[in-house]
Description:
By secondary structure, the chain is α/β, with parallel strands linked by helices. The chain has seven helices and 14 strands.
Amino acid sequence: MKHFENDTVVREVTPGVWTFSKPFTRYGILPIGGRSTVIKLSTQTDGKDDLWILASTPLTLETKTKVDELGVPKYLISPDSDHHLFLGEWKRVYPAAKLIGPAVVAAKKPELKFDGVYGKDPEETHYGFEDEIEARYFSGFIKEDIAFLHKPSKTLLEADLIFNQPCTEQYSIVGGSGPFFGATFTPYTKQAKKLLWKGVKKDGFDAMAVDSIAVSGWDFERIIPCHGDVIENDAKEAWNEAFKWHMQGKD
């Protein structure tokens, strides 16, 4: 199921998992595409489905209308240091939703009250969605990304760990597909491995190896990145290839 909201493509990727894909330029000049993802949880509030939302794009009137149709936002998630631009507007509209993100974002957004902070809270902390959505905090990555697994749909969600350019869906309304990385920047390219390697903190390589191997062990069939097209097939292979240097050693 797919429909369009101005420049945003809204799609039910798999039952209960909706993406909001739109154009986005890094630094205002580099087209990489943007995406929010909404997941229906098995719980309800006042007879409506609870929603877990990776909130990475603007909360336009059209987006809000669709979100309200789907259910009640219960969790608003920031997946890494760069994906926080629109958290404030989401939280203002949905003040009852729990705001959760990495420590680096909580530090950047002191005006927002976070209900959960990866990298600051004890590792065993549960925020309430863990029965359905598992999380892995990449402490060794400079952007402190968090990978999420929606277990019922076998869907992996992530922000800047994997790009899958060109971002055809995200630019399908306005035209073009985001020429910054072109058709060559996928998890299978050497450029992707270099980006992941250069993005590691000075003392973070051991942690990156442990975390990338842990995610590789998850049971997922697709990857929904924030930048680029959804990886619908061979998702585990794509992950393993992107993190090959971290999991097996750099050649």
